[in-house]
Automatic annotation (TrEMBL):
Domain Histidine kinase: 42-258
Enzyme class: transferase
Coiled-coil positions: none
Record's keyword terms, sorted: ATP-binding, Cell membrane, Kinase, Membrane, Nucleotide-binding, Phosphoprotein, Transferase, Transmembrane, Transmembrane helix, Two-component regulatory system
Residues of the full protein shown: 198 to 468 of 473
Protein name (record): histidine kinase
Membrane topology field: Multi-pass membrane protein
Length: 271
């Protein structure tokens, strides 16, 4: 087949092109492999930290628990909060590790006001934090978007959870219609904010801004990277604006219509 290639016009170019394609595929594979390796090593490290705390408190209890009952409260508190953190991390890791092909996405018309209200209610029940929902003035028509309601709420939950962790004040979800027919969902907080130079990095897996200011606040730096993937899967865009010391706004941009298909509710597997 080599000879046949040679005989054709431009066969040499074709060969060179194949060589280039091959090399770039190998580079891609290698870089994916490196990413996988660092993902596994980061994940193990992050899981080991809370485990170490749990282990040391448990062995402290074993050794001294009987004669020092005052150790009980502190130890159990620590063991509990570290377990919660590990559980959250494991759930997020499992989701991130699942191949995209297996993320079943159900696209359809979604009422964003209703999705916001439901997320706010679920959040209130889970954390006892009040969330205000700010809908457009003229609500004679609901704001609709073409997306996956369940995954949108999952995404909102991640953003609300960050707002809760990094601000003490009122958290607001706003729903706005865009002039092009699309819509914006925002989660607004007036918390500690994110330094400008770190803003692009917060979507990286395991990235957390300055551990010293967030120590004691649960999290593994996985929420936003999962959020980005969720947004991607449901045809949305996720962006973050923040001013250090003033607060953060997370914006989900959604489009009004499906990309051409007329089915009102379709079940499909995201490529
Ligand atoms: P984490 O589990 O650490 O919150 P995320 O991926 O959700 O992980 O966020 C990454 C980092 O971005 C956080 O550790 C925090 O430093 C910063 N961050 C995210 N959301 C906010 C917010 N609303 N206000 C301030 N900082 C935030």
């Amino acid at each position: 087949s080599f000879r046949r290639l040679e005989q054709r016009d431009g066969a040499r170019d074709e060969l060179a092109e194949m060589g280039e394609t091959f090399n770039s595929m190998m580079d891609q594979l290698e870089s994916n492999y490196d990413k996988q390796k660092s993902f596994v090593s980061n994940a193990s490290h992050e899981l080991k930290t809370p485990l170490t705390v749990i282990e040391s408190y448990a062995s402290l209890l074993l050794r001294r628990g009987k004669d020092k009952p005052e150790l009980l409260e502190e130890s159990i508190q620590a063991i509990h909060s570290e377990s919660v953190r590990m559980k959250e991390m494991t759930e997020q890791l499992l989701l991130l590790a699942r191949p995209k092909e297996q993320w079943l996405v159900s696209l359809g018309q979604v009422d964003l006001g209703a999705a916001a209200e439901e997320s706010a209610r679920a959040f209130r029940n889970a954390y006892g934090r009040e969330i205000a929902v700010d809908l457009p003035e003229q609500m004679e028509q609901s704001v609709l978007a073409w997306t996956d309601a369940g995954k949108l709420k999952q995404l909102l939950f991640i953003l609300l959870d960050n707002a809760r962790k990094y601000s003490e004040e009122q958290i607001v979800i706003t729903v706005t219609r865009k002039s092009d027919g699309g819509a914006l969902l925002r989660v607004v907080d007036r918390g500690i904010g994110i330094p400008k130079e770190q803003l692009p990095k917060v979507f990286d897996r395991f990235y957390r801004v300055d551990e010293s200011r967030t120590r004691g606040i649960g999290g593994a730096g996985l929420g936003l990277s999962l959020g980005k993937e969720l947004a991607d899967a449901i045809g949305a865009e996720l962006t973050l604006d923040s001013v250090e010391g003033l607060g953060t706004t997370a914006t989900i941009t959604l489009s009004a219509k499906s990309n051409g298909d007329q089915v009102s509710f379709s079940q499909r597997v995201k490529k």
